[in-house]
Amino acid sequence: MRLSALFVDSSYLIGVLASLFSVLNPISASVIFASSTTNVDTFAMKKMARRACITAGLAMIVFAVLGQFIFSFFGFTALAMKFVGGILVLSRSFDMLSGDSQDRITPQEQDAARHRLPEDYAVIPFGIPLLAGPGTLSTVMGFVTQVSIRDYVLVLIAILVNITLTYFVLINATVIFKKLGTLGEKILTKLMGFILAGVGMQFLINGILSLAYQIRTFTPS
């Protein structure tokens, strides 16, 4: 029984890890990061990468921890979040599949970032929205909607692991991009977009199933 539970936990954790890695898309983010830090020394570049990742990680954890409060405060249900999350994640995946994955920050924002100190632009636009954009945050909230405490903890672990991986990708952005080349980066982005499309569709399927259950069990007062 314990072995079965461990297998289920491992499968769920791997699924969340892969999904968050896909929506964070550090490979594409590293291309923008490398092009925006060409005139920045190594120490400052690592400092910027660290701050960007901490910002993105905190944003994801806040949305994971306060997800239910956000639902209540704004007056929408967890079911609504399943549909919203599914639509946003699908939209993000279509952008990645069509080759528009780098549009999360505009060329004007990139240009402005080059003329500011690393600590000024590590938070915005690189931490948010380059890494933790609407698609990332909605994915996190989708994973913590109506789950057990154990799965909730696994989502938090997945966030921390992904942010750590993203940090190492960013500080090695120049080397990675040279190794992959433009074609390699595009292929990886499309693969991650394909994974993300499955995540978004699953969110929508879960939403439809939950809605069908609510309709079936609804008893008028």
Question: What does this protein look like?
Answer:
The chain is mostly helical. The protein has one domain (43-217). 85% of the residues lie in helices and 0% in strands. Helix 1 (2-24) packs across helix 10 (173-217) and helix 5 (78-98) crosses helix 8 (134-143). The radius of gyration is 18 Å and the shape is elongated. The N and C termini lie far apart (42 Å).
How many strands? 0
N-to-C span: 42 Å
Sheet with the most strands, sense and barrel status: none
Strand content: under 5%
Query: What's the order of the H and E elements?
Result: HHHHHHHHHH
Shape: elongated
Helix amount, in percent? over 70%
Number of domains: 1
Structural class: mainly alpha
Number of helices: 10
Radius of gyration: 18 Å
Low-confidence stretches: none
Global mean pLDDT = 78
What are its keywords?
221 residues, mainly alpha, 10 helices, 85% helix
Topology, element by element:
Blueprint: H1 2-24, H2 26-36, H3 42-65, H4 67-74, H5 78-98, H6 107-114, H7 118-131, H8 134-143, H9 149-171, H10 173-217
Helix pairs in contact: 1-8, 1-9, 1-10, 2-9, 2-10, 3-4, 3-7, 3-8, 3-9, 5-8, 5-10
Quick overview:
By secondary structure, the protein is mainly α. The protein has helices at 2-24, 26-36, 42-65, 67-74, 78-98, 107-114, 118-131, 134-143, 149-171, 173-217.
